[in-house]
Prior knowledge:
Histidine-containing Protein, Chain: A, 3 helices
Amino acid sequence: MTHPKEINPSVRRWVALMLAGSALALSACGDKMGNETAGQKVDSAIAKTEQAGVAAKGKTESAAASVAGAVDDAAITAAVSTGLAKDPGLSAIKIDVDTQGGQVTLRGPAPDAAAKARAEEIAKSVKGVNGVDNKLEVKAM
């Protein structure tokens, strides 16, 4: 092995410059841009994208459930109205049927207490009805 004093001074300077340049290049690789390295920023962006995807999925599922509920309520309202129209003692045109979350509300006139009770039974017999709020008023039609 050659003794350090025997190495040509120009070679020694060249090696020293190369080592210093390499050290500088390596330290720049670990340099942070802002408070995060480029890799940390990429990881953060990926995590935020995944979170946004999860949030969008939740909103889509919620909206779909809401639409499905509205369609079910509309179908229940239609079925109750059809059932009321089939009863000759009830005026389905004058009876307002409203459904929210499977809960049916009946409003309007009924010719007598028996007709009011029949309207409630018709509404309760429809599939998907959770309950009936019978606000029909007994009035001679």
